[in-house]
Structures are given as structure tokens and as C-alpha cells.
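Morning F.,

Quick status update on the modeling queue. The single chain you submitted on Monday has been processed. Sequence for confirmation:
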Amino acid sequence: MKNKIIFIFITMLGGVLLAGTRVAYSRPGMMMRIPTSSNKVAPYLFRTGFSTEIHNFNPFNTAGGLFFDMELSRGFSFGFSAVIPGDTSHVKELPNGYSLENSTYNPPVEFGFHFQQRVYTYNDISLSVGLQDVVFESEQKSDEILSLNTSLLSLFTVLASEKDLGDYKMKTYMGFGTGGLAPTDPDTMSFVASDQNTEVSDSVTTTNSGVFVGFLLKTPFFVQWGGMDIVGEFDGTGVNVGLRIPLTSDYRLNLGFTHMEKLPEWGNRYWNGHPGFTLGLDMAVPRDPRVRVQSGPSGPTNIYRQGEGSGGFDSMPLHRDSTIAMANVAVTTLRDSMALMNNEMRNLLVRLNAMEQNSRFLSDSLNSLKLETNVSEKNMNEAMRFLSRSLRHFYAGDYREALKEVDLALELNPNLALAYARRGSIYYKLGDVQRATINWNLALRLDPEYTDVRNILKALNENKLKSTSMIEE
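C-alpha cells below.
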């Protein structure tokens, strides 16, 4: 009866404390053990791979399995894992701790299902809720083929934020979960010694919920294959760190340590929370088989578009790359040609504006000349009328009135030689020979070919000028 109770207790302890779904890198997402979220649609059709945790080397003790996840539609994701947990059925007590003995016990295979839905996005922030660790176990010595382990059932919500840090990209996760996301992690445990007759039992602390945080830093190393990722997280019970190293654009090698804070106790702990070394490989299958997919901080990215956005979820078929490159060259050439034509057009517009301004200037000058000509003609006509009236006053012997008319004519046209000649004749009649001589010289200066004035001045110099008549020309 006692052995039966011990066997039942060991079976329950193995299911609660060593669930295979806790194997690092075996859950959906790019982290080791915590759930993730993203505000972008993954370009891969599905992602699959395997992961192994090494707990001890002598005797060799591991836990590992396979996983599969995919995003169906509208932010709904589905994942599946099939793992074999580590064997902790035979523990031997030592003075400084516990040691695992060789065992022929085969741990039950566990099948886990994981569901997640993105419910909110804003800029680079996303919020998701989900259900993880729907675990079915293939129990030994049981009539049932599979049994549901409800103690591991995990409800969670996770908030994610993604930031660009120059050549690096950081994505952080904060969340709250139950069940498998907040497992029991006592400092002591109940186990059965190797002789199967001694039971060592200490109190076990149960935790039903907990918080988790994590970050994923995308580095520029191996950028041609998508960049190497540095993973760090607190899963509710301990700190896990790891590297995701790209082997090709579609394959990544996953390395890491679980529960770094307990590495000094390596080999002395064989329950949930023990330290371990993780080794795994995953592959992302693109939705379009012509696309090369790379894994970035929040999911696979395309090698040709990895610089766009921190998540890099845009993808591009390979056979279109050369065509697009040629089109880019053609577009660049056309853009340069258009820029050159625009410069030439601007130069032509500048020249046209200058010609228009010159044309307006010439037009204004012509109008001014026409106006001056019209004014000059009008003044000439008016001046000739004054000279005509002065001639009538001269013959009438009214020399003062004749002189006034001549002065009015000179006001309208100061360059009229006839007016100066006539004014000289009027002054001569008035007996003012000096003024007469001055006006005749002014007339001759304005018109050197004025023969009548020249003859008058010659006669005056020879004292032959006795009388003069009004010059009528």
C-alpha cells in the first residue's frame, strides 16, 4: 500500500514539476519560455523545430521535444509541442545535496497545445491574450491513452513594445500568467530514494499565478541572414538567457541557459527550477516559397526588406528582385532627366521673363518718344502761331507786342532759330544793336546754314547795315 502511494505521488510530482512544455524554445514565439506578441503579421506559413535541455552529464539527463506554430488569421496563432521531460524518478541524497542515479524509467510523452489572439495594437505596442499548456500526457500503467493535466493550464496576457536603437532593435514583453507560467519552485521537494523504500518529504509551495518579463535584442551581426538575437527573460521562477544565431536566412540555432541564478547548484537540483543548458534548431517556412525568410526580433523578416521597420514583416518574391532593381534604375534615370528638364525650363522661363521686361521697357520708351514727339509737334505749331502774330505786330510798328509773341514762342521751343533771328530784328528796330547781335548769333549757332542771319551779321561788321526788315522765314 505504501509503495502504491509513493508511485502515485511520484507520478503527480513529475507532471507538476517537470512539465515538458517548459522546455526552452519549445513554445510559440521567439523567446525561451514566455509568450510573445507582435503588431505585425508573420510572413512565414509556419515555424517548426526541436529543442533540448541538458540537466546533467553524469548520468546524462535531458528533456526535449519538437514544436510547431503558425499564425492563422487576424492575429490568431496556434502552436503544438511534443516533448519528453527529464527523468527525476531516482534521486540519491548526498551530504552536500542530491544526485541523480541511473534509471530505466521512461518519462511519459507530453503533447501541448497553445492558442493566442492579438486583441489590441497601437503604433509599436501590441496586447495579446492566450491559453497555453493544454497538456495531454501518455501515462504509463494506465488504461487511458492520454490524460489532460489541468494543473499546467495557463491563461496569460502579454504586452509587447518594439523600439529602434540605431543598428539594434529592442522588443520587450511584460505579462501575467497562471498555471505553467507560474510553476512551483520550492527549495526542497518530495522524492523517492533509490532503494524505493525511503520517502523524503518536505513541504511544497504552490504558486497559481505570476508575472513574467523579457527582452529580445536584434543585433547587426550576421545581418545578411537577419541578424543575431540576444534573449533575456524572467519566466516567473528564474532568469533565462540565450542566443538565436542565424545559420541561413530560414534556419536558426538556439542556445541558452535556464535559471542562470542557480548555475552554482548544477548537478544538485532535479526539479522544476533546475539550471540547464539549451540547444535547439528552428526553421521558418515562408508563405510564398519564392521568398527567403529571416527571423528578426519579432518574427521572420525578408532579406531584401530587413531594413524596413523593426519587425521586418514585409516580404518579396525572389524572381521580382532583378526586375525591381532594373525598374529602380529606370525610374532614377527618368527622375534625373525630369530634373534636368525642369532646370532647363526654369532657365527658359527666366530668359522669357527678362525678354518680357525688355519688351515692356522698349514699349514704354516708344510710347514716351511718341508722347514727346506729339508734345514737340504741338509746341512747334503753337510757337509758329506766336511767330506769325509777332510778324503782324512788327509790320504794324508795335515792336513791344511783337517781342512778347517771340518770347512766348521761345518758351514753347527754346531751339527755334527763326525766333532768335526775329527777336534780333525787333531789338535792332528798337535801337538795341547789342541785343540784336546776341540773338542773331544765337540763331546762327542753332542753324549754321541760316544765310539771311549770316548776311545781316556780315553787313553789321562792315558798317553797311543801315536798316533791316523782319525776317519772315
